[in-house]
Every structure is written in C-alpha cells, then in structure tokens.
Amino acid sequence: MGLAYNIYLNSKRIYGCKICKTHLADHDEIISRNFRGQHGKAFLFNSVVNVQLGEAGERNMITGRHVVRDISCRQCKEVVGWKYDRAYESTEKYKEGKYILEQELMCQVS
Amino acid sequence: MEVYAGDTGACSFELDNTNPPPTSPIITAGPPAPSPPHPSSATESTAPPHNPRAEVPQEAPNDPSDPSDRPRKRRRRSSSLHGSQPGNARPSASRQQQPKRRRAEDTTSPDVAHEPIMRLEHTHEHRIRPSTNGSSVNGSSPHTNGSSAKSTETNGYHSNGHAEGAVRQYDASPFYGHDREEVTRILLQSLSDLGYHGAAKHLSSESGYELEIPSVAAFRSAVQQGQWEEAEALLFGHEAVELDGGVLLGNGHGHARRRKSRASFGSQNGYARQGLPLAETADTTQLKFLLRQQKYLELLDSRELNAALNVLRNELTPLKRDIGRLHALSSLMMCQSASDLRIQAEWDGAEGDSRRQLLSEISKFISPSVMIPEHRMATLFSAVQDEQILGCRYHNTTAQPSLYTDHECPAGEFPLQTFKELRNHSDEVWFVEFSHDGGMLATASKDGLVCLYDTRNYSLRHEIREHDRNLSGDTTKGVCYVAFSPDDQYLISCAQNNEFVVINVRDGRRVAHGDHFDYPVTAAAWLPDSETFVIGTQGSRRPLGLYSLRSAAGTSSSSSSVVRNNEIHSWRDPPWDDSGPADNHNSFRITDCAVSPDGSRLVATTIDKRILTYDLRSRAKLAEWAMDDRLTSICFGVDGAQLLINMYEGRVLALSAATGEVVMRYEGASQAEYVIRSRFGGAGDNFVVSGSEDARVYVWRRQTGVLVAALEGHAAGGGAVNAVAWHPREGVFASAGDDRRVRM
After folding, report:
1. Domain B418-577+584-743 belongs to what topology?
2. Distance of alpha carbon B458 from alpha carbon B455, whole angstroms
3. Has residue B108 got a pLDDT over 80?
4. ipTM exceeding 0.90, yes/no
5. CB B673 to CB A3 under 8 A?
6. What separation in angstroms does the CA of B120 have from each of B82, B211, B433?
7. A109: distance to nearest CA of chain B, Å?
8. Distance (Å, rounded) from C-alpha A53 to C-alpha A71?
9. Domain spans of chain B, in order of start
C-alpha cells in the first residue's frame, strides 16, 4: 500500500531483517532462546516491529498443536518467523501472542 | 416634568432663558429652572422611556443663544427646541402635542427602540426625511451588524449650529431598524473620509446631525496644533487634571468655562466634568501620559530642553506609570540633535504623523458615540464581508466580493471533478507536487520514477530514473518525496534507497546528490534562495542536514559537475559524539520537514511524535512540541503563520506556527498505517486538502473546518490517496493514489 515509514527501535542490540535491515526486534525483548525453527535456532520475542502478519494455520510442532501465522518483513516481504495465536496445551499457553524470529533470517543491526 | 424629569441631565433642554414660555410647557421637564443641572449621570441609559425624545432642536434658534448659554448650562440642545425658537414655526403646534404624544409613544414605540438613550428622536409623523439621507443609502444592504450595539452609549450629540431655521425636521423615524442618528453620523464620517466635504456639510445641515460635537472637534484641532494644555483640559475637564483613576462622575453642573467644554453628555458611567465622555475602559492616566509624552517629545525636538525637563518632572512623573518608559524618555534628553532623538524614540517629529497617530490612539478611548471610531462604515462593511466569506463553502478567490449582493460562490467553480488521469507509473504513486509557478507537475512513485509533466496539457516531459542505480534489491526503491526549488530550476527527489538527488529540471540531469545516509531519505525542503535545502532522513546519524548546491572548496566528487554530499550543517540532538558505537539513541529521525516561506524557520517532525522548530539563520533550536501520535506530514501555510500536520488516527490539524497550539481540526480523513499528506490550497490558502486511506480526497475550508467535499475517484478499496497538491494559480488540484494514478 502506500508509503509507510519503518519504525525504529532504540536499543543497544537490535535485530533486523537480513535482507533489508529493517528493525525487527530488540534484544531485550527475548523471552527464550530455546527454540528451533525450520532453519535452525530461533528466539521467542515479546514484541516485534515492522512485520506483516500472514494467514493463521494450525501446525503440529514438537511441542504440540498450535495455531500460528507467519510474519514477514514489511519492506522485503520475506518470511522471518511466526507468531503464536493459540496453543492447545496448557503448558504452552505462555507462547500465545508472542513472536518467533529465526536467527538465520536475521542480522544484528547495531 | 414627568417625562422629562427623569432624564435630567440627558436632556438638558436648552432652556435658554431666552426661550419663551411657550416652550416650557412642552418641554416640561426640563428646565423649569434655568439650569437645573440634572445629574447627568442618571440619565442615559436608564430611562429610555423618558428619554426625552428630545427632538432635535432646531438649531437655529438656539444658535444665537448658544454661545451664551452654552457655557452656562450643559444642556442639550435638544429638545428644547421645541420651543425655543421662533423657528418653531414649523409644526410647533404639532409639537406641542408632541410631548404628550411622544411620551406615549416613547413608552410604546417599540420600534424606535434602539433605545439609545439619549436619542433624539423626532416625531414620527414628520417623516419628512425620507431615507435617502446622504449617500447611497438606498440599495445598500442593510447593515447586518446592528448599530444597535452601540446604542447603549450616549448618543451623539446633536449639535447646534445650524443656523437655519425651521426647515429642518428631525425625523425621528428609525431607518430600517437602525437608529437614524447613528446612521447619519456614520454617513457623515464616511463622506468626510471619502473627501466629499461639501456633501458632508450639506448632509449635516440637512439632517441636523453633526459628526462631532464641538468639543471633540476642538480637541482634535488642539491635538493637531499642539496645544497640549487645552487638549488635556478638553479631554478631561479642567478639574479632572489632578485626579487619578478612571472616569469621573460628573454632575450636571458644569460651568463651562471654556467655550467648548460643554461637552458632557451622560455616558453610562458618568463623565468627566466638562470633559469628553470616555469609554468605559479608558484609563485617564494612560491618556494623560500619552498626551504629555507627545508634548515632551516635541519640546525635545525643538530643543527647548528646559521646558522639556519641566514637563518630565512635573507632569510625567507624578502620573506614576510605566517607570521603564519614563526612564527611556529621560534618557532621550541626552540626544544630541533632533534627528538623533527621532531615531532613538522612533518618533517622526512634530510635523509628521505622530500627532495624527496620537489622536487616533486617544480616540479609541473616547466614548464611541461621541467620537465615532475611525472609518466605522468601512469596518462594518469588512465585518459583514468577512462573515459572508467564511460562510461561503466554495470560496476560491481572493478577489473582494462586491458589496452589492451577498456573496456566495457557486459550486461549479470549485474543482470537484476529475478531468485528467495520469497513468505513467507502474506502481503506487507516493507523492505529487506542482512547481511554484504552476507550470510543472512532478510525481514520485514506488517504482523509482519521478515523472515531470507540463501542466498545460499534462504531457510527460521527463522521466527521471536516477534512483535506479545503486539498487540493493527491488524492495528498496521508491521515491517518497520531491521538492521544487523556489525558482523551479531544480528538483530534489528523496528515495528509499538512502539517497537523494537534485536534478536540473530543464534537462533532467542530476546536479547533486547525497548518499551518505544509512537510512531512507524522507523529506526535503528548499530555502528561499534556491541554493540551500534541508534534508530529513530516518537515520539517526544525520537526521536533518542543511545542504548546498554550491560545492565547498575542493570537495567535488568524481564528476566535477555534480556536487556530492555537500552538507553545510547538520542538526543532531544531542550533539553527535563519535564514541558511541551503536546508534545514538537520543537522536531523532525525521519523517517530514518544511521551511517557512520567508526562510526563517524550519520545522521537522520526528518519528517519536515530536515537532521541532529551528531558526534557520542562527541554526538554533527554537521549540519542541510533543504530540499525541505519530506525525506523517507537515507543511507551512503561505503566510508562514500556520502549520498543517497529519497524524495517525486520521487527524489533520492546523497549528499556529508560533506557539504550536491547535488552531483547527479537520475531521473525516482516515489514516492508520501509511503516510498521508495534506496541503493548504486554494486562493488565499482558503482550503485544506488531504488524502486519506479510504481512497478519497477530502477538502475543508481552512478557517472554519467545514468539510467541503470528499471526492471519490481513486479505486476504492485499492488503497490510500497518498498525497495531494494544489495548483498555485488555477483551481486545480492533483491527487496521487495507490492505484498508480494521478488524478487532476
């Protein structure tokens, strides 16, 4: 759509899109580093910026069934991770509303 | 008695003793005793009913007696007329009945009611004076502003002075709902202002009204001739000179010592004894200060230093006002010469305008019914016209509407239809702008193109693909801003691939560019000299920079004709220090910037919801305002006094450029995610036009905030209207939308 400026974060360590360097998330927002995605290591973040949400779908993951949707960089439209919409297992509820960003698809923007 | 009894002061009837008895019965009230000075205070306002509908005395008879009695009593000439003169010949008989009838009428005549208290009104039956008094009265639209607003003050005084006798009828009938006396006096003033003095004299003799009572005229001439003591005495009454404070309450006994001071009429709060009635807010010490200051300056001017010193000591200082100014005045004594004095005091000498200015200053404080505010009729006309213009929805001209009819612009003249669509771009169009002279239109789009069109036929002149170089990926191209230089020679285009380019408009060649940014360049604004410009980016290192087209000595880049990265000055907040490795957090990123039309100020909006104002000459920061939400666009109005900003949540606001306060809000547009821009437009900047995310263009009236139109046209559901621009000359505007089109 129309012109939209990116949101910029103020922080010491910022993760950005590998391709277009758009700020995605702040290092301090990491909840857990103990995740694995399709491409390897991934982090669970509290909040991300400059992403667009995709369609929700159910997926079976190592931890169980979840409703997730892909997130992609706003500018270059590359998928960078996903967001948990709903978790069916009660132990996984803490993930609801949080975002996963894959380390492979990100870079550090100082 | 009765009737008139009350009014007392107000209508002192001239009872000239010379007036023979016949008058007395009629006059009643008045003057049983020759000069019962009725406490003037009472009158006025209060008793409309009794207002002596003093009719205007026929001057004539009074005249001879005037000089003599005037001094004695303050009487209004008015009514007495009835009798008084022999001139009564006129309907004296009828007059005799008049009082009674009048009395009855007084109380009952509602329509005469503009109750100006001391209205001199005349019997209704003598409608001798048709409404064609003086100038073009007929046919002009009735004053919508009531002159009745003034009616609470004392009315002008009717002067004596016409020696004619009998023929004057003072027609008391209200003129289309307005007080005849007020209308006539305003007409007299306008005629004199226009220079038709003969007509003015004739009008005043015909109607019996005078523009100014003699004491006011005397005051005016005293000021203009520099007779300060007399002026002061006239203004305040000779006894009032020593008193402080506000307006005095006089009482009717006056003894007019001077020939002219018969002034008094009541004003509601009483009036200075034998002085001119002052307006309610008048401060006598202030007025005295003004008069004496002028006297002092003139004495200094003519180098009579001793006398000036005297004035300073004895007259200015006791007033105990404005000590600072007093000190300044005393320092003026040190001036060596008269011209030096004038420069220092910013005063243009005794012969110059200063006396006239002093007079107009003081006249503001004198009760308006006695000394009509200057150019009253013109003020009334302008007020009516302004109101009509404000109410006119499609007003798109700066021409002064005619006074003959009420003003209403037809909708047909307003650009409401699309007459042309430009489809050159292959992707969303993000920005559109007309050149300052209206000859060219530039559009910027996501596909990296800048297209220049000729506005005569909207044919494509240039397609500028400068930003196609240095592509790192096709997601980062896109030109988000273009700006024409004030002389329309150059065009800056700002792109998302972190650079900006300045192009010569004639041949499309690039003249300068800057690509030392890490982040997209978001906005640019030229200074009026067409050589320097400001660039705003989203990078924190160089968020706002001032660049010049001229190359600094020795820093030309590879191609010698192209100036590169020529940054003159960069604003950062706080100052950049190289020690920090990461982004300087506190630095700001700019989303839009604008330069005021006179080149003195720069405003910029940042990504964290602030508006910063800088002074361009001193490069200092002037102000910073925090707003509620993120801002996407800012621009100045043509006069540099207002700013228009777009915020998220669909708000378009007009702010005052000096204080940052919201002047007006324009509702209707929607904006949630994208950058939408708005502009002032139309003749005299009468309109505000903005894009919105619902594919419509919104137009509002700037002063009133009324929505004039919400124009469809861009593919609905297709996306936002990103930017709009108004043609500087014609009534045309362009809108750029996400449907890849530019509509005119």
Report:
1. Methylamine Dehydrogenase; Chain H (2.130.10)
2. 5
3. no
4. no
5. no
6. 12, 14, 63
7. 9
8. 5
9. 1-149, 214-363, 376-411, 418-577+584-743
